[in-house]
Amino acid sequence: MRRLYTTLNARFLCACLSLACLLPQSAYAADTDPAVRVLNASPEAIAADPALAGFVKQTAESAISEHCSRCHGPELRGAPGAPDLLDYDWLWGSATDSSAVGAVMQIQRTLLYGIRNKDCPPEQQSYGACAATRFSQMPGYLKMQTLNEAQIADLVEYVLKLQGGEADAGAAGRAEADFAVCTECHGEFGEGDPAFGGPNLTDAITLFGNDRETIRDVIANGREGACPPWGDTLDAAAIKALAVHIYNLAEK
Ligand code: HEC
Ligand code: HEC
Questions:
Q1: Mutational pocket test of ligand 1: of 61, 62, 72, 185, the residue with most ligand atoms within 8 Å of the beta carbon
Q2: Which pTM does this prediction carry?
Q3: pLDDT for 173-188, tens place per residue?
Q4: Are 241 and 177 in contact, with CB atoms under 8 Å apart?
Q5: Which domains are assigned to the chain?
Q6: Can you tell me whether residue 89 is helix, strand or coil?
Q7: Is the Cα torsion angle 47, 49, 55, 57 positive or negative in sign?
Q8: Do 221 and 230 contact (CB within 8 A), yes or no?
Q9: Tens digit of each residue's pLDDT (9 = 90 or more) over 74-99
Q10: Going by CA atoms, what residue is nearest to atom 41 of ligand 1?
Q11: What is the pLDDT of residues 118-157, one digit of tens each?
Q12: Pick from 64, 67, 42, 65: which is nearest to 52 by CA?
């Protein structure tokens, strides 16, 4: 049996090697196609090559007006629930990557599989969402009856205090113990955790708003913001172009 495998493996290897002889021709074609070159180039290499930079800008701008601006706004500056894509305050991943390549790959991943995408057959789902999608959820603590109205009112003040806004110091103090359940996704000090898409609660940038009623509603009822996956709508070069374009425009 083992011998059969070895023979089969050897044959497979030969087939691969002879296929490889054909490659230089197609590699030559690939060299001239800006879409293929963009796929294989770093953000720096793209910026340094006018043909590639032009391809990226044009491809991304047309995809944005066709697919993205209805939620993220025409300039990608966001709307309640749909983040500003140019503020360099990432919910998912990129903030932790210091290199341009790493950051662009994180954005590509978000674009390919979406965020909280549930639009796939049950057998492709895991824990109620499509397997590769970005997933985690802001729980609704009143709905789940984990926290009561008074505790939530105190947490609202705690969040306002974290943001550096005007807050009731006594209420914020009382909320300190309850905030322990929040740190899993928002970080020990509320600084956010891109692994869970948990927003940074310590800056003025908010996804939903920073008035008391909005913050109470988020904590009481939860949220489930979703970005569609684009892997079936846009080809790989368009996805890469979008990721590079957004990275380039973002205010680092
Ligand atoms: C139906 C509305 C909708 C459309 C259309 C949409 N998005 Fe989104 N997008 C969202 C929402 C909502 C979020 C925030 C999800 C969350 O809470 O984590 C998001 C998040 C993102 C993020 C993550 C940002 C971060 O801070 O990590 C990126 C990147 C993104 N969208 C890019 C795009 C691009 C590019 C397009 C067009 C190809 C697009 N989106 C189209 C709703 C949309
Ligand atoms: C399981 C992960 C998780 C836990 C635990 C969690 N959150 Fe969240 N939280 C999120 C996510 C994810 C979002 C973004 C929601 C979305 O986009 O759908 C969010 C959003 C928020 C927002 C809105 C931020 C903005 O920018 O508008 C506030 C406020 C908030 N959470 C507070 C809390 C508090 C207070 C607790 C604890 C009582 C808590 N969260 C626990 C994941 C979590």
A1: 72
A2: 0.89
A3: 999 999 999 999 999 9
A4: no
A5: 37-119+228-249 (1.10.760.10), 149-221 (1.10.760.10)
A6: coil
A7: positive
A8: no
A9: 999 999 999 999 998 899 986 667 78
A10: 68
A11: 999 999 998 889 989 999 999 999 999 999 999 999 999 9
A12: 42
